Amino acid sequence: MLKLGLQSDKEMMAKIILILFASIAFCVMAAWYLVPKFLEQPTYKIVQKDGKIELRDYDTMLLQSVKVSGQQYDALRKGFRPLAHYIGAKSREGGKISMTAPVMQSFVVDENAWRVSFSMPAKYNISDLPYPNNDRIYSEEIPAFRAAVIRFSGRAEISLLTKKTKELYDWIESSGMSARAEARYMFYNDPSTPPFMRRNEVLIEIH
């Protein structure tokens, strides 16, 4: 009887541990999924949808940007740090600025550099943004525009980004439109998010 009781206790403990781990895993998965949805994002209206591709009309977008050199992923990390310090009010006066999504990246061909950008919350104008104590950070105000955007999941390595960019350019051309600016890569999740849960996009402004 004692042996059966011990075995029963062990089975119960194993079940409790299993439920605990399952609950923790569920909470982590929910956080990966929900956190980006609570971050403010640039405002847009969907005009047309074709599978994973959308035609969107964006409102005016205010960005804080920095230019960095290097390979795509390394440049993204290098550009993220000073922008995170900026919104976190580190080494500058004024209060913190809320984090937004997505983090944006585009290649500036004539400078052979990557531009990494955070969009600013809608309550800010370019004139009332806190002044950065980093002369590499600068403000951009992009007037309202129309863009073609392709959405995809996965680990956004340069090979996948290049493939999706070509797919989007082909769609734009086949639809009788033309690009008016370089492609922007847009990343909505933090790097700890499993690739299959990530929201990545390529955005191309069009005529």
Write a compact overview of the structure shown.
By secondary structure, the chain is α+β, with helices and mostly antiparallel strands.
Q: Helix and strand layout, with pairings?
A:
Elements: H1 2-38, E1 44-50, E2 53-58, E3 61-68, H2 72-87, E4 103-108, E5 113-119, E6 138-142, E7 145-152, H3 158-174, E8 184-187, E9 200-205
Antiparallel strand pairs: 1-2, 2-7, 3-5, 3-6, 4-5, 4-8, 7-9, 8-9
Structure description:
- It is a single chain.
- By secondary structure, the protein is of the alpha+beta class.
- It has two domains: 1-38; 44-205, Regulatory factor, effector binding domain (Multidrug-efflux Transporter 1 Regulator Bmrr, Chain A, Alpha-Beta Barrel).
- It is built from three helices and nine strands, in the order H-E-E-E-H-E-E-E-E-H-E-E.
- A nine-stranded antiparallel β-sheet has the order 1-2-7-9-8-4-5-3-6, covered by helices on one side.
